């Protein structure tokens, strides 16, 4: 293949970016560098979002729900017509792998920055894609890819394949509609859940079955093809570190692979893409056993017919701009480089920063970001540390869209350096107002198994005790010392700094006699003996140290200057950022705490607990009836929030005394769903107030746009 020109072509005009968040910002960055005019689309919830400001023009396409905005094809096409757009870039997620949308763009005379609709259809149907790959000679995982979808047939096929077996949505992606089934007794329930998620997310309930590999590795290859019959691969990425079948860390090169095995994977990926007439950027995903470096056996899993979330890993490794390649190939230009001209340098790792609660089953989180400080970085460009994000201080993370808010990408001359740089970047991150997985990411990077390159898809599950453990005493003590130091240095007798009081913004003056924090007339209350609540899975009541130096461990005292205390904009609470972790504290309010304790005692007397919705969402199922006796851990209801299913389970044995919601009902966060009466007398002890919180189990995601 001859060398291609890297000169910037004349742009066709205006590019509409049919997406939101960090990927819309990232596409706009490259498009404008190449001289394109850019158009953002936004829902009513995103009117002030970063991607709106990143483009030359912006068009509102509907209300907050994705089905009425970012998935609304007529609205998107009308926005393209109204702005005179010549091309549409779908980003990832949403409609990026929707063949009908690609065809609609072409029918409207728009250039679709992606593969032909026929290629999307060929690879979008996983069962058909596997049959196509078998014909092309690409190795497949043993399984069932047939049309019959009845329970008896699928059960029989699962028995033939042998347990464990993976149930997968045919039209799925991004971990949606997937269950690993370990025994025949679990199959029917897992199948029903996959079919329900697949129908809700893709409008297609069909599934396929695959042999379930134990602790496999997930390795994917970035491919690019042009309209002139040329195809190349840009090497592989290891995406094995996952939770709920969704990627957490991605890195390149994949640890432990020989150059020969890498080349075999790359050639198989290009063959897979070219067998369906592919054009543009795509990713061929392989699954393999832990001993792939020894056996050399890998199997085709699926092809993502779009740009991947983790494309910055390949950009850092090769120094190439994949979005620029997409735009040029979409215009009919040949690939900029031949296979032998593509080089790699060093090692790169990406961490997905998600608004979620790892210790609560990775339940997605919402809220308003009241404090945000990124580590020193570059955006959308090769650097020792790169941050791709659309999140800013003051932004709200809502339940309408994907929970990923940013990507941190580290590059170094070797794997150890890249890991160290990513760890340092995560340690410097300050994000308050929304729960996130930054601490978990740091702990995964520090695992000896990860450091040694012993990665697989069950790594987080296997090390959950370590990864989800509460902070150690030294870390908490450092945070307390930092907060004590901050409070002693804070000015007194001002509305913004008097304990329990927020800045006065007009209206009647605040009433000090209505406060319950021990306020006193002259100045700030003494810090001696002050108690605080540490926000944790189980809130802990802790005392503030009297003397900072004396109470801070000698091993951590030198870290005090690196700590930052940020007061919450409302309420008497603080976020404390330390080199050993981030902590949220709230001052104890003696009078209010006393009232809560009194209410708890009354609740304990009756033994009745209300179980609440974990997030704003919708009730999918109610599994019990009033008067029914249930056991601890039994699923009582199923809700959907942020396009994920959440099972509300009984925290203790009891009797359902009252149902407070109905199937299909929209519920707010914290809204009571049902009441559970603890068993009494000879049956079981009455439930204590501390045990009245429902256990919530998050299933595999069902987001229709989650990559």
TrEMBL record:
Keywords: ATP-binding, Biotin, Ligase, Nucleotide-binding, Transit peptide. Its cofactor is biotin. The keyword Calcium does not apply. The keyword Nucleotide-binding applies. Residues 492-516, 679-707 are annotated as: Disordered. InterPro entries: ATP-grasp, BC-like_N, Biotin_carboxylase_complex, Biotin_carboxylation_dom, Biotin_COase_C, Biotin_lipoyl, CPAse_ATP-bd, PreATP-grasp_dom_sf. GO terms for molecular function: ATP binding; ligase activity; metal ion binding. Residues 130-331 form the ATP-grasp domain. Residues 600-677 form the Lipoyl-binding domain. Residues 11-465 form the Biotin carboxylation domain. It holds the Pfam family Biotin_carb_N. Residues 684-707 have a biased composition (Low complexity). It comes from the Bacteria. This is ATP-grasp domain-containing protein.
């Amino acid at each position: 293949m001859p060398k291609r020109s890297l000169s910037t072509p004349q742009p066709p005009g205006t590019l509409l970016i049919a997406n939101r968040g960090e990927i819309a910002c990232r596409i706009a960055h490259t498009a404008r560098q190449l001289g394109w005019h850019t158009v953002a689309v936004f829902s009513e919830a995103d009117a002030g979002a970063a991607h709106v400001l990143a483009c030359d023009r912006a068009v509102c396409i509907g209300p907050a729900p994705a089905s009425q905005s970012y998935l609304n094809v007529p609205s998107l096409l009308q926005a393209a017509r109204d702005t005179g757009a010549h091309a549409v870039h779908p980003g990832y997620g949403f409609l990026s792998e929707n063949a009908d949308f690609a065809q609609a763009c072409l029918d409207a005379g728009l250039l679709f920055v992606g593969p032909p609709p026929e290629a999307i259809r060929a690879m979008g149907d996983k069962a058909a894609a596997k049959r196509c790959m078998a014909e092309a000679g690409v190795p497949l995982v043993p399984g069932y890819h047939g049309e019959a979808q009845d329970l008896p047939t699928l059960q029989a096929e699962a028995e033939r394949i042998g347990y464990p077996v993976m149930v997968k949505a045919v039209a799925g992606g991004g971990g949606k509609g997937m269950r690993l089934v370990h025994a025949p007794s679990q199959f029917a329930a897992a199948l029903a859940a996959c079919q329900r998620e697949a129908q809700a997310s893709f409008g297609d309930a069909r599934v396929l079955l695959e042999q379930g590999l134990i602790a496999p590795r997930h390795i994917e290859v970035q491919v690019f093809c042009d309209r002139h019959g040329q195809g190349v691969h840009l090497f592989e990425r290891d995406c094995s570190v996952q939770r709920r079948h969704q990627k957490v860390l991605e890195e390149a090169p994949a640890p432990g692979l020989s150059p020969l095995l890498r080349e075999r994977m790359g050639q198989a990926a290009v063959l897979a893409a070219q067998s369906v007439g592919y054009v543009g950027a795509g990713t061929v995903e392989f699954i393999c056993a832990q001993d792939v470096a020894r056996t050399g056996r890998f199997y085709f899993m699926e092809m993502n017919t779009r740009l991947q979330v983790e494309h910055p890993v390949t950009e850092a490794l090769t120094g190439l701009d994949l979005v620029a390649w997409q735009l040029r190939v979409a215009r009919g230009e040949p690939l900029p480089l031949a296979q032998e001209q593509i080089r790699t340098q060093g090692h790169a790792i990406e961490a997905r920063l998600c608004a979620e609660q790892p210790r609560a089953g990775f339940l997605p989180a919402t809220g308003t970001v009241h404090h945000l400080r990124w580590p020193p970085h570059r955006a959308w460009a090769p650097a020792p540390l790169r941050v791709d994000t659309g999140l800013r201080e003051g932004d709200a993370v809502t339940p309408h869209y994907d929970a990923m808010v940013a990507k941190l990408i580290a590059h170094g001359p070797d794997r150890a350096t890249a890991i160290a740089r990513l760890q340092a970047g995560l340690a410097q991150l300050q994000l308050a107002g929304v729960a996130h997985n930054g601490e978990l990411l740091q702990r995964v990077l520090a695992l000896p198994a990860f450091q040694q390159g012993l990665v697989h898809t069950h790594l987080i599950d296997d090390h959950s005790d370590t990864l989800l453990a509460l902070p150690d005493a030294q870390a908490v003590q450092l945070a307390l010392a930092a907060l004590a130091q901050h409070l002693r240095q804070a000015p007194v007798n001002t509305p913004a700094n008097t304990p329990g009081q927020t800045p006065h913004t007009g209206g009647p003056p605040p009433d000090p006699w209505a406060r319950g924090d021990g306020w006193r007339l002259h100045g700030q209350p003494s810090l001696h003996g002050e108690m605080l609540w540490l926000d944790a899975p189980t809130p802990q009541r802790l005392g503030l140290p009297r003397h900072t130096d004396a109470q801070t461990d000698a091993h951590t005292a030198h870290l005090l200057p690196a700590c930052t205390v940020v007061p919450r904009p409302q309420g008497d609470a603080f976020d404390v950022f330390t080199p050993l972790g981030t902590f949220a504290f709230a001052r104890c309010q003696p009078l209010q705490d006393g009232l809560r304790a009194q209410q708890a005692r009354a609740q304990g007397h009756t033994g009745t607990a209300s179980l609440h919705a974990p997030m704003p969402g919708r009730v999918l199922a109610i599994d019990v009836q009033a008067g029914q006796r249930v056991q601890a851990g039994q699923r009582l209801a199923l809700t959907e929030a942020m396009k994920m299913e959440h099972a509300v389970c009984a925290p203790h044995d009891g009797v359902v005394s009252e149902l407070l919601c109905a199937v299909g009902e929209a519920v707010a966060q914290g809204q009571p769903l049902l009441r559970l009466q603890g068993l009494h007398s000879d049956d079981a002890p009455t439930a204590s107030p501390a045990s009245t919180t429902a256990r919530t189990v998050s299933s595999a995601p069902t987001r229709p746009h989650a990559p």
